[in-house]
Every structure is written in C-alpha cells, then in structure tokens.
Design brief:
By secondary structure, the protein is an alpha/beta fold. The chain has helices spanning 6-15, 20-26, 35-51, 53-56, 66-71, 75-88, 118-123, 157-162, 176-188, 201-207, 238-248, 262-268, 344-349, 352-359, 395-402, 419-426; strands at residues 147-150, 168-173, 194-198, 211-216, 249-256, 273-281, 284-292, 304-309, 312-317, 338-342, 362-363, 371-373, 382-391, 407-413, 429-441, 445-453. The protein has a nine-stranded mixed β-sheet with strand order 3-2-1-4-5-7-6-8-9, sandwiched between helices. It is flat.
C-alpha cells in the first residue's frame, strides 16, 4: 500500500470537496505530489461521506480505487450485519468486562487481546444488547470473550463493524494490497482487536480452531470477470464448505446476491439455515443474508425471515406463511379509501398473506401486490396513498380519472401495459402530486387508481 506523503495529504485536505475530473485536468504538478493517489482519496472520501459517514469522519482512512468504493457495503448494511451477530450471540452478550488471554486455537501468531485495569473492570456494568454500537468509529467496542472470522475480507467495511462486538476479530484476504489497506484502516478506526491474515480463506477455515461467528461474502464474478449469481458459481462455493462452517462456528453469516430466490437457497442448504435477512435501503434490495447453524431438532425447521428497508422492519416464521397470497381468502372492502405498496424487502420475501393478516389490509388481486383498506394503517412497511378515484380503461373512465391532469407519477403492478406505455397512452408528463397505479383487481378487471401520497 502506498502511504501518502505530506504533499499528497495536504492536497487531499485542500481539495476534497472539489470535482475530481476537473482536478485531474487542472491540478498543478508539484514535486512530491502523487496526483493519482490523491484523486483516489478525494473520490473515495466523497463516496464515503454519503455511504460510510463514520469512516469519512475518521482521519487517516485510506480509500481504494473507485470501483471498490462503489461495490463495498454501506454503513447501514454493515451495521445491520453487526446487529445480526450480536442478536444471535445475545445469551453470551451479558458478560463482565474481563478478558482472558485465550485466543483462537490455531497455529498463527495473534495480537494480544486488550486488557482492562482493575478500576475499569469495577466500573463496568453488565452490558446490554445494543450497547456495542454507537455513532462514532472511535467509540469503545463491546468487550466480550468471543471470536469471529471474516474469511473474505475485501475492503474491510463489514469486518470493521462486525469486529466491534468481539474481543478477537480476524480478517482473512488473499490480496496483499487489501490486507495492507485493512491493517492501516483498522488501526485508524481504533480496532485493536483486529488481526489481519493474508491468505486463502478456505485454507484458513480448514486449519483454524472453532470460533463463535464466521462471515463470508463470496465473490460474485467468474474467472473472466463476468457477474455470477448462483451460490455454486461464486468463490468460495459455500455449499461445499457448509459442513466445515457448521463444525467451526456457532453461526455463519453468508452474504448473497439479492437476485437469488431465497426459498431455493434455503432448500439447497438442507435444513441448516436458521434465519433469512432481506436487506433494502432506499427501497432497493441490496443484500440477501443467510444465517447458518446446526439443526436443533431432528426435523429441519423453517427459518425466520427478516424484512428490512431502512427503519421499516418486520419478521416472521416462514413455516406459517408459505403460500404467499391466499387467493380468494379475503374479499375487497366496500370502501377502498387507501392504497398501500409494500417496500422492496417485502416484495422480495413474498409474504403477502402476512401483510394482510398483520396490517388488516386486502390485496387488490392475485399477483398485484398492492393493498387497499377502508381506514388508514399506521406503520405500514411501504408507501401509503389516499385513493381519489378508481376507474377502468375506457375513455369515459380515463377522462373522469384524469380530470384535466397533465402530469402524474405512474406505476403498474400486474397490468398489461408497462409504465412508459401507459404514460404514452394517457399523454401525461412525469411528476406532480398525482400518483396513478395500473393494476388488476380481484375478478381480473384492469383498473386505474388515482391517488395522492399520504
């Protein structure tokens, strides 16, 4: 890893709010300035300011080239993974703040674990769930006699948040430049418990002793650089490692493509998936996370599913909701005053019968995935709209629905026209306060719903 000299560091601090492309063309070449490195750092910080604000606020962080910054986890998704780990290990979370000298039972040299003075120990209360995470990267980490390993370290964002909840955290990565970067950045973030290992994650897994928690983010590109999605096409192939992972850890968290069918993935892991986490932010699915663990009973149990979209969160037992929509099980209300559109994580989960039951709404029709109610619904996990009018696709109904409207936001669900096609047919510009939904109601009627956002 190239370390910034004083000239380069000063340039970055002076210009980090400026346009990188303009800087590349106009910056003066002065002695000692490593301009390519400076531009990488400015571009990286500008991305981190929005994507990783805690990292961006930490002086001394060195950022990788642009593509790595675009592909790395966001602060939200990384923090959520830490939340998963601490919740899974909650029975062991309430501990006294005394750390022993024991470490992983492998043959590699480890950093010594942080020690607390007697006074610090006496002042420390039993830690409650949630105390491990704070708003500052320099904050105290949860002191617990627990160990975790990240077998696919990469840039190290996920690792940096997971590591906070463990007294010993090991990062494993094959690429030397990423290891050097991680070693520098973990020190800058104050993660003294972090240990960096440059090596193959699969080989390390085979040789290491048992730990409490393992994290994997398999590479989703093949040897030609083409994107892959199937678990068996990723590197490493988690299917092949399943039994070894179960033997070496209490829990393993696997990050997969949000494009995958989570039900098939659960079935392919043959009863070892304890939890499924569908994580979205900004109403866009970002990650599919599976928690692997030993079976508790002879008969495989269905996993619990967690749907997350920013601060909207629901969870449920997948065994109770396997059919999606119970077609015809719930008639539409006579008064259709409100329309609700589930967020992206619920759309991905397909738990539409759960939504009906939990929030007292009714799906407008099979495969439409829009819901109506007579009364407003508090805390619905998605967008809500007040219905102003409902009509068909005939000219009379369309004229009544539009009522002189020249622009509208248009969406379609289970409708014979695409949104652009419907916009063209209605001759509407985009935007404005009106929201038009094209969908299919119970009885196979194609309808338009004119709404306004709640």
């Amino acid at each position: 890893m190239t370390i910034m000299n004083d000239e380069t560091r000063e340039f970055v601090a002076m210009h980090r709010n400026e346009d990188v492309r303009e800087l590349a063309l106009k910056a003066k070449r002065v002695e000692g300035l490593d301009l390519p490195l400076a531009l990488d750092q400015i571009a990286g910080w500008q991305i981190a300011r929005k994507k990783l604000p805690q990292w961006a606020s930490c002086e001394g962080i060195v950022y990788p080239p642009h593509i790595s910054m675009e592909q790395c986890s966001s602060q939200f998704t990384a923090q959520y993974k830490s939340e998963i780990a601490q919740t899974l290990l909650a029975p062991a979370a309430t501990v006294r703040a005394r750390v022993s000298d024991s470490g992983e039972s492998d043959n590699q040299t480890t950093k010594s674990e942080p020690q607390l003075s007697d006074s610090a120990e006496s002042d420390t209360q039993e830690m409650k769930m949630g105390a491990w995470m704070s708003d500052s990267p320099e904050s105290d980490t949860l002191v617990a006699k627990r160990a975790m390993v990240d077998l696919t370290g990469g840039f190290g964002v996920d690792f940096s948040y997971l590591a906070r909840g463990f007294s010993q955290a090991t990062y494993v990565e094959r690429q030397r430049h990423l290891c050097d970067l991680a070693e520098h950045n973990m020190a800058a973030l104050g993660l003294d418990q972090a240990r960096i290992v440059c090596g193959d994650g699969v080989e390390y897994l085979r040789q290491m002793g048992p730990v409490d928690f393992i994290y994997l983010d398999p590479a989703r590109r093949d040897e030609h650089g083409s994107r892959t999605y199937a678990i068996e096409d990723c590197t490493p192939n988690v299917f092949e490692l399943r039994d070894l992972l179960l033997a070496k850890s209490q829990y393993t968290l696997v990050k997969l493509s949000p494009m995958l069918d989570w039900r098939k993935a659960v079935a392919d892991f043959d009863g070892t998936v304890r939890e499924v986490h569908i994580v979205a932010t900004g109403n866009e699915c970002k990650e599919l996370l599976l928690v692997l663990g030993q079976q508790m009973h002879e008969e495989p149990s269905a996993p619990r599913v967690f749907c997350v979209n920013d601060n909207q969160r629901i969870d449920y037992d997948s065994a109770a909701y396997t059919q999606g929509l119970r077609i015809g099980g719930k008639p539409l209300p006579e008064a259709k005053n409100y329309l609700y559109e589930p967020n992206a994580s619920i759309m991905k989960a397909g738990c539409f019968d759960l939504v009906e039951e939990r929030f007292g709404v009714t799906q407008v029709g099979p495969s439409s995935h829009l819901f109506v109610s007579a009364t407003p619904v508090a805390d619905f996990p998605g967008r809500g709209f007040a219905i102003e009018a409902i009509g068909g696709m005939n000219k009379k109904d369309i004229k009544r629905l539009l009522n002189g409207t020249k622009q509208a936001n248009i969406a379609v669900r289970n409708f014979p026209l695409t949104a652009p096609q419907l916009r063209k047919k209605l001759k509407l510009a985009d935007g404005g306060p009106v929201y038009l939904f094209g969908t299919t109601m119970q009885g196979c009627d194609h309808v338009l719903l004119r709404t306004s956002k709640i």
